[in-house]
Write a structure and sequence with these properties.
This protein is an alpha+beta fold. Helix content is about 30%, strand content about 30%. It is built from six helices and ten strands, in the order H-H-E-E-E-E-H-E-E-H-H-H-E-E-E-E.
Length: about 220
């Protein structure tokens, strides 16, 4: 089994020219604010046909300082920061309460690009979290109403019953409140943009927050 996995891994290639186009990136032309560059790269990823470009890795640390990571959805990016949402009593919600600092990772292989974001996290006011939830799909509300995220599940049948009940309520009450649902804002102090290069001369541009502005540094690949 291990050899099969090893051989499969060795057979794979990164940035297949048949599906990947590595664009040029001149860091000298980058805007002063990383949000502007992120917005441009995000739109370009969408235009290039990147699947689910709004998904991202969210890394947190638990009460003991041990790392944790999972894939979540970006809900927005503006002057308040990069935003995502979850239940405050979920594993990641509890970790953010104990250690309100996190990192985000975006990977858009269709263009060989990564964006890494790191900084302190704050919870938005409750009414903002509820407004964010109710602006999403019925399925998102049903999932939030199901709740108990990361708790031990006795059986898939139990999940099916709870989910069916939540879907019925979500259709009946599209504004049903979910008190534990929380919108979080990550205000970055570092944002790195990585552009892959076929010759492995990858371009890495790192933004560092300094007071009210940003410094830019190139990083060795």
């Amino acid at each position: 089994m291990g050899n099969d996995l090893h051989e499969l891994l060795r057979s794979l290639r990164v940035w297949d020219p048949a599906v990947t186009a590595l664009p040029d990136f001149d860091p000298a032309s980058a805007p002063a604010d990383p949000l502007a560059l992120f917005t441009t790269w995000f739109a370009q990823a969408v235009a290039a046909g990147q699947t689910e470009p709004h998904t991202m890795s969210l890394a947190t640390a638990d009460e003991e300082g041990l790392p944790d990571v999972r894939t979540v959805m970006l809900h927005g990016a503006d002057a308040s920061g990069w935003s995502f949402a979850t239940h405050v009593d979920s594993a990641k919600g509890r970790q953010l309460t104990a250690r309100p600092y996190a990192a985000l990772g975006f990977y858009w292989p269709v263009q060989g690009r990564q964006v890494r974001v790191r900084g302190p996290v704050t919870a938005a006011p409750a009414h903002e979290g509820q407004a964010d939830l109710h602006a999403r799909s019925t399925g998102a509300l049903a999932a939030a109403l199901t709740g108990r995220q990361s708790q031990v599940l006795d059986s898939l049948e139990e999940l099916a019953r709870a989910s069916e009940s939540a879907w019925e309520r979500a259709r009946r009450e599209p504004d049903a409140p979910v008190p534990t649902w929380t919108l979080y804002h990550l205000r970055p102090d570092r944002v790195e943009f990585f552009q892959g290069d076929a010759a492995r001369r990858h371009v890495r541009l790192n933004y560092r927050r300094t007071g009210d502005g940003w410094n830019q540094d190139l990083l060795w690949p």
